[in-house]
Structures
1.
Amino acid sequence: MKKTLLATAIAGALGASAAAQAATVYNQDGTQLDIYGNIQIAYKSVDNADGNSEDEVFDNGSTIGFSGQHIINPGLTGYFKAEFEHEADEEKVNGGINDGDQAYLGLKGNFGDVRLGSWDPLIDDWIQDPIGNNEYFDPTDSSSDLGGLYGGSLADQVDVDREGDKLQYLSPVWAGLQFAIGTQYKGDAEEEFGANNEVTGVSSQGSNASFFGGAKYTIGNFSLAAVYDDLDNYGLHATEEATGRTLEYEAKAYGLTAQYVIDTLRIAAKVENTDATYAGEDGDILRYALGARYGYALSDNFSGDLYGNYQYIDADKEVAAITNAGGVNNSGDYVGDDSFNEFVVGATYNISPAMYTFVEYAQYDRSHDEGDGVAVGAVYSF
């Protein structure tokens, strides 16, 4: 689950976990501390790169979180959030809390909001989530492209961190208009992206700080958002072993999303582009998507969400391998398609205000049907 609480809240009060509330453990003299979390266990059957189906029972993002705030003065509040993940399906052998999610601190007031730490990219929250934000299967996007930007053996040597080491300013809302600007800083001592030059044949292109920014306008039930992220600290030089050539890998991402919410129905449309350089070749990966989510309530005891999304991808042949790794043959040449049709459909059913089940089916139209599959699961939120 990416952010079910957010998704269902947008869809409407009938959403599966919208009624789940954090537990306030302290609230006195302007200081508040909350504890919240969820247990998510699911089953999936997904086609691998060879076209063979693989299944498992797995943890879908079980989390325990802490959030707090303190009123410094009437116009200024300090706050924090820290979330930690654990493998609920194999808790004993995985040793409890073993991963992190969001963690940040900040100041907010009449001037807006300043935040420092780790959280989802702005392009994820404002552009991608209104389309997908499903339980397990999501449409591909510019964020997932970065996982394929460093193809072949290079992908095993460098890490991708889209959430950490960020600083962001978020403005107040003025007549429906809001904007955000920020940077992700990766210093010379960082291991990500080969920035510390400790991976043989791989070096950073020299930029430590990226820039991202966006604007959102809301009028009534309609909103429009645009985001740009130069991903500047992802640029790499890599030496090709066979020829000794130095190849370039870099990307920029930007998108536009419009959405309309009426009662418990949300409809959204998106245009998103990854402007990439892959092994020295330039090209674009354009995405056009539609998504909808509806909160149903047939009776007091029968409610949940119905949702689906469709996405068409038009990729230049030079960079199509970024989004379709299975199209690369044994000689390292790309022989796959350069356009793809993706869709995901799903439904949730509320067992109680704090517990629900879900089922999803996805097709990604990739070589050997890689990524296609079905998932079912259950979530308990507190």
2.
Amino acid sequence: MEIIETSDFKRAFKKLPKDIQRLYDIQKKRFRENWWDSRLHIKKVRSLPYALSFRITRRYRVFFYFQNTETAIFFEIDHCKDIYR
């Protein structure tokens, strides 16, 4: 699975605490190997019909969508209180 991170995603990622960045790397590896891994807790995003999200922790999420069957676009990463506004 190819993962493309948008420039907005990369900017938001740099602002995250270091421990969350490390956990993201673990979850990204799981996503790349098997995006249906239950440890990712993937869900549809109600406000964006084309988007899905997965957990980094209980409070941090990554929003993404599929460009095609082999490419995922990660476009948002943040604390859930900020991301669902």
3.
Amino acid sequence: MSKQRIFGLDILRVLACYMVIQVHAGEFFYIGEASAGEFLYIGEANAFLGGNDAFWVNLYNSLCRTAVPLFVMITGYFILPVKEELGIFLKKRFTRVLIPFVVWCALYAFYQYFRGQVELGMAFLNILKIPVNFGTEIGHLWYVYMLIGLYLFFPIISPWLNMASKKHLQLYLLLWSVSLCLPYIHQIYPEVLGEAYWNHTPSLYYFSGFLGYAILAFYIKKFHAEKKKEHLPIGSLLVVAGYIITYLVFASQAITSQKLWDVELSWGFETINVGMMSLGLFLLVKNIQRSSSTVFNNLITSISNLSYGMYLLHIMILNIFYSLFNELIGSVTIKIPLIAICCFISSYLVTKILSYLPKNKYLIG
């Protein structure tokens, strides 16, 4: 039985897919050279290049940090609590996710070889490394490992979700929200709540991570599925406040920090500001109804259905448009959205073409 479509969540999935691509389009202009050649950066590996380009990256892409949390929230909204038998659930999910992932890992390995970034032997070695980590060192594939972890845990947590009261869920989400503040607390106190070099599982460890976004979406489905008048002001406030925090912290860190992970402090998916923006966008968009335009409705649904395939393949297309526009256009103000939009449209068209192939689910999910 196919799941019931919720048009607002289709829109959110399309937005999240575009935002991922825009984030990666922006990375060309503020990060030093990637050690494994994912992009053709100029500069020391993992160094923060800064300058005016970084200003525009921050302005454009701070909101886009919600992309992955939104993907997880949409997944949690539809799946939790798991009602299928364990074997059926895992087979269905892993067939859709794992097989295309392995295929694209192999394709990226040979893609890097044909671009002259790795030797042929290293390409095969990268494929063999897939069970350990994303074997081709293509950064965006980290998401699939995280998603697999959630799929494995969803059936385990579902019995609790079935019986959990509103107060139980609120307590979990409160503690999870506190865990989202830890990246900032660590700037003052590097080790808190039992953290030490011999202990990597402090007090809030079990309330942290992407699982919180999935449970947040389940909570919304259970208690706030219908459109409520307070969703608009609350959602708007969360998005604006979260964006301001994200932007200002990045701008401040850009002045004082040289390493990428320090500058991107407020861009972490597990930060309170990104959580605020993600929740705000979810509340604002989830109840949008289908428009009177059949063409628009069908396009949104089509992109939503193909978003996983677009996610997997977009890096190849992104590099093409970067090479095309980087020297042709001088202003980063124009280049970032132009590269992102062209890549988004092209990724959709390529994925749409692939969807007509036999057994396409093994290629694009």
4.
Amino acid sequence: MEANTSLDWILLSLAVLILVGGLLMLLSGVREMGKKP
């Protein structure tokens, strides 16, 4: 089971990156929509 720890860490890091990227995209989209009249 020790060999799966690295894979779990990679999956966790990928999930975190996707979540953070999605949040940043949403925030930037909301800001752009708010700027436009």
